[in-house]
Design a protein that fits this description.
Elements: H1 3-16, H2 20-35, H3 43-52
C-alpha cells in the first residue's frame, strides 16, 4: 500500500474513531454494496449478522 494511501486510511479511521482494520473493512463493504457485489452468506456471516441485529 502506498504510504500516502495508508496515511489517508489512518486519517479516515481517526476521524471515525475506528481501528485501521475496521475502517478498511467498512470501506470495502461500502464499496461492494455500492457496486452490487456480495459474498454468499456462509455460517460465519449468518452468525455475525444474527448477533449484531437488535432483537
Amino acid at each position: 500500500m502506498a504510504p500516502s494511501v495508508k496515511e489517508l486510511l489512518r486519517l479516515a479511521a481517526a476521524h471515525e474513531r475506528r481501528t485501521l482494520s475496521n475502517m478498511l473493512e467498512v470501506l470495502i463493504e461500502d464499496y461492494c454494496q455500492a457496486k452490487g457485489l456480495g459474498v454468499p452468506a456462509g455460517p460465519e456471516r449468518i452468525e455475525k449478522e444474527m448477533t449484531s441485529t437488535p432483537h
